[in-house]
Amino acid sequence: MEPINIADYEALAARRLPPSAWDYYRSGCDDEVTLETNRAAYARLQLRPRVLVDVSHISLATTALGAEVRSPLLVAPTAYHGLAHVEGECETARGTSAASSLMVVSTMANRSLEDVATAATCPLWFQLYVYRDRSLSEQLARRAEAAGYRALVLTADTPRLGRRERDIRNGFGLPPHLHMGNFAGEAREQPGQEPGASGLAVYADAQLDTSLTWEALDWLRSVTTLPIVVKGILTAEDAALAGEHGAAGIIVSNHGGRQLESGLATIEALPEVVAAVAGRCEVYMDGGIRRGTDALKALALGARAVLLGRPILWGLVASGQSGVARVLDLLTLELELAMALVGASSLDALTPALLRYRGY
Questions:
Q1: 317 in a structural domain
Q2: pLDDT of amino acid 184
Q3: Which residues contact 281 (CB under 8 A, 6 or more apart)?
Q4: Which of 223, 246, 292, 322 gets the highest tally of CB atoms within 10 A of its CB?
Q5: Alpha helix (H) ranges present in the chain?
Q6: Is 359 a residue whose pLDDT tops 90?
Q7: What is the CATH number for 53?
Q8: Is-contact 355 299, C-beta < 8 A?
Q9: CA dihedral in degrees (257, 129, 142, 229; nearest 10)?
Q10: Is 356 part of a structural domain of the chain?
Q11: 126 pLDDT exceeds 60?
C-alpha cells in the first residue's frame, strides 16, 4: 500500500537506507533531547476550533520573499541527497517543482547548485555556510545569483558541529562514489569516512569559520544583491539583530535538533521571534513538522511558511521525484483539512486565538 502519512514514509526509508545513512539523516546531537523536544512541543499546543464558518473554499497560496508557492510548505536545506537517490538534489528539485513549492539547496549538496537550478522549475534559495576562506563563500554566493537563485540563507547556528554520536559510532563520511557537488575537484569536496569519528565533524572543524559574528551578514550583503535569510535564530535578541543588519527573513530553527542539546523547541521559540521583528522581515520555521496540524500551529503563531527537512528525504528514498511531491501534497491536504475544521478559510485567519497550551 502506498504510504498515507509521513510516518509511513519514514518507516519505508528506515527499511531501505543503509544503517549509516539512516542514522545520519534521522539523528540528533548527544542524547537527542532537542530532537524529541521539537516533536513533543506540538502536542502541548491544543486547537480551539471555530464553527459555522464558510470553509467551502480554502486558499493556501502564498509567497516567500515574493516567490509564489502553492502552499506554505517549503523544502528545507539538507545535505547529501545522494545517499537517498542516485540523482540527489536534482531529483528533489523535480519533486519540489511538481508540487509548486520552493526548495532551499544546501552548500553540502551532492549535486552542484547549477545542476539543481537546471533541474528545477520551482523557486530556489541557496543555503550558505561561511568558510574560513571567505572567498569560497563569496564564490558560492555569486554562483547562486548567476544561476537564478532568489535568496541566500545564511546558517548562523553552526560555528562548530554538534556532537552526533550515531555518526561517531558509524565513522560517518561520504562513500567513495559521492562528493560535494559545489566543490568538485577540490580537497573540500568530500568529508571522508573516519573510523571512530564523524568525518563530517572533522570537515566542519577544519573548514567552517568559528569566528563568525553579525559582521558576516554585513559582508554578505556587500557581495550579493540577493535578499538574505538568517537561519538558526531562536531568541528575540538575535531576531532584532538580524533585522538591524538587514536580513530580509529569519528561519526559526535549531538545525533539526542536531546542534545544541536541551535547546528550545522551534515552535516554542517562534512567538518571541515574531514579536521581536514586528513585521520588519518575513519569519519562517522548521523542526519536527510531521502533520498538517503541526504546520497550522506554526502559521497561527506567525510563521509565514514552514520548511520540511527529514520528511522530504523520506519521500526521496521511497520514490524519488514522485515521493518528494507526494510528501508535500500529503501535508498540504492535511493542512487544508485542518484549516477547514478549525474554521479558517485563509492563511490570514490563522491566529494565536486558535491555540492554547495544554493545561492553561
A1: yes
A2: 77
A3: 242, 243, 247, 248, 249, 250
A4: 292
A5: 6-16, 19-26, 33-43, 88-98, 113-119, 134-146, 165-170, 199-207, 215-223, 236-244, 266-277, 292-300, 310-342
A6: no
A7: 3.20.20.70
A8: no
A9: 40
A10: no
A11: yes
Q: What is the pLDDT of residue 193?
A: 79
DSSP state letter for 153: E
Q: Of 277, 242, 234, give the one whose Cα is nearest residue 153.
A: 242
| pLDDT reported for residue 188 | 59
Return d(Cα 24, Cα 20) in angstroms, integer.
6
- Sign (positive or negative) of CA dihedral 274, 40, 73, 238: positive
Q: Contact 252/242 with Cβ under 8 angstroms? A: no
The confidence score (pLDDT) of residue 1 equals 83
Residue 255 appears among annotated catalytic residues: yes
How many whole angstroms separate alpha carbon 185 and alpha carbon 179?
A: 9
For 304, which DSSP code?
S
Are residues 44 and 358 in contact, defined by beta-carbon separation less than 8 angstroms?
A: yes
- What pLDDT is recorded for position 186? 67
- Count of domains forming the chain: 1
Q: Which domain holds residue 294?
A: 6-344
DSSP β-bridge partners for residue 357? 45
Residue 360 lies in a domain: no
Using pLDDT thresholds of 50, 70 and 90, give the confidence band for residue 103.
very high
CB neighbour list of residue 136: distance below 8 Å, 6 or more residues apart: 188
Catalytically annotated residue among 81, 85, 179, 255: 255
| pLDDT > 80? residue 360 | no
In a domain, 354, yes or no: no
